[in-house]
Amino acid sequence: MNPFERTRHFFPVTEAFAYLNHAGVAPISTRVEEAIGRFTAEATRRGALHYFKVYDAEIERVRGRAATLLGAQPDEIAFVKNTTEGLGLVAAGLDWQRGDCVVTCDLEYPSNVYPWWSLADRGVETLMLRGRDGRLPIEAVEAALLNPSVRLLALSSVEFGSGARNDLAALGGLCRERGVLFCVDGIQSLGCLPVDVEACGIDFLSADGHKWLLSVEGCGLFYCARRVLERVTPRVIGWRSVTDNENFDHYHMDLQPGAGRFEEGTPNTPGIFALGAAIDLLLELGIDAIAERVLSLTDRLVDGLREHGAAVLSPREDGAGSGIVSFTLPDEAPSRTVERLRERDVFVIERRGGVRASPHFYNDEAEIDRLLLAL
Ligand SMILES: Cc1ncc(COP(=O)(O)O)c(C=O)c1O
Question: Radius of gyration over alpha carbons of the chain, in Å?
């Protein structure tokens, strides 16, 4: 039995469905369920009696685990309510000048477009590069960054529709050469593919917990590299943004020395308990091993789809493969294919004109074959 088969019992969802929608909203494991139970048991029986020993201790432990997952330091991590919040902190907090330019592309999920568009009234232009066959050619980014007005590159680690994996190390290298900030929407890879913020020269990264991290909605991670922390002014300041924040009698505005300054008030403690248990499981298995497993399952799916005459829309060559496989069948609308699969308890969804399947490590070959058979 491989280590992933041994984790299957943590995912009772497998008893009912071939759940292949981790790029949408993932199911949680019983390990996460238990962690939430630990929180609710404490809150129910003792309230906040042991706030520091139980709640605060877990919050800081999880911050450390999140840092390990990203190759960051704990003081570079803030908990946020979703991906959008982290991206919005960057958009709202940088010292923009009229005429500055942000580069992104038309393959992005709206949460990595609107925060930049919202800067139009401050004179910031957003350049939308055009994807080709589901992928953003790196040459297009290289050419765009020649424009000296470009201040920031905002891209996803993996594009939500096509599943194209962007080469973060190469993009980060281009940004460094041009002195451009690099901001990553990491939600479609964190928990599934390795992300090393330091090695890739990423300045900011944001991801909610409810996809590949296998946690709950409403509690995610925002990474802000130490070297750029002072360049982002937090626009929402509250009691927790400052140092010595348990001293409520003395008002001051000395911001916390790390990314904790972006957590302005009471945190989503149950969400953090959940996220901690989810990250523990991922780190136990190892992200490299998880990536290998997910790519092997998606390779099997791609091969099978091609044998069935389906058109695979996801780029898979040159390291562009990810946990997302998008496809269409000849002579069938994607919505109909999704419906037919749903009738056979295979859960996929439609995105950007394709049927999108996204298995995680605990899915198995039999479930992939079930999808293929159901077609
Ligand atoms: C690439 C990408 N970014 C962001 C999100 C969601 O953003 P948020 O966590 O703010 O809800 C999704 C969800 O589908 C996504 O695919």
Answer: 21
Cα separation, 99 vs 278, whole angstroms: 42
| Three-state secondary-structure class, residue 366 | helix
Q: What is the pLDDT of residues 24-72, one digit of tens each?
A: 999 999 999 999 999 999 999 999 999 888 999 999 999 999 999 999 9
Residue of minimum CA distance from atom 3 in ligand 1: 109
Domains of the chain, by residue range, sit at 5-20+286-374, 37-283
Q: Which long-range contacts (CB under 8 A, 24 or more apart) does 334-337 make?
A: 337/375
Which CATH architecture describes the domain 37-283? 3-Layer(aba) Sandwich (3.40)
- CA 82 to centroid of ligand 1, rounded, Å: 8
CB-based contacts of 367: which residues, under 8 Å, 6+ apart?
A: 14, 18, 20, 346, 359
Entry field: residues in the chain: 375
Question: What is the distance in A from the centroid of ligand 1 to the CA of 186?
Answer: 9
- Centroid of ligand 1 to alpha carbon of 26 (angstroms): 13
Residue 111 near ligand 1, beta carbon < 6 Å: yes
Asked whether 234 and 264 are in contact (CB, 8 A), the reply is yes
Which of 228, 194, 274 lies closest to 94, judged by CA?
228
Is the CB of residue 21 below 6 angstroms from any atom belonging to ligand 1? Answer: no
Amino acid of residue 15: E
User: What is the 218 CA–ligand 1 centroid distance (Å)?
Assistant: 11
